[in-house]
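Quick bug: BYS1 domain-containing protein output formatted oddly.
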Amino acid sequence: MHFAISIRIVVAASFAAGLVHAGKVGDAIVQNNCHNKVYLWSVGGSVGERQTLEPGDQYVEKLHYDDTSGGISIKITRTKNGLYDGSPQLNFQYALTDHLYYALSAVFGNPFSSDTLLVHPSVDTCNNICWVERDWTKAREQTETCSTNADITLVLCAESC
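Here's what came back:
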């Protein structure tokens, strides 16, 4: 929740200054390396259609600015209706202004608490986010920044960080 407040402030200030990025942008990618399918929804000012990722599948969306919410949260659950039934939910969040801000958070528990989660940007000078199995609570407030042309990839059930 801290991420949402921080991102709203950054986005509001950037929007007011005319800094919302309109050039070449990267992609947000979710790679399912888990042994089971997962479900995700892209949520900004509205909720996108549910996507099902089988083991080995990837979801890709072009990074974009949402003028209603200011940012996007790709919400991931292990249950088919997890967005609506209170299931543990992983949120892969980003906001696109003059920079790319990205973070992970979990609500109602972490559906991947016994797995390693890795967010790695395609630009080497930007920081990874890593949640190691059973140790994810320490990293809940980590928000990173990168250039807007970077791809950011969330690897579910990563082998390591």
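Actually, after a second look the formatting is fine. Confidence is low (pLDDT under 50) at residues 5-19. Closing.
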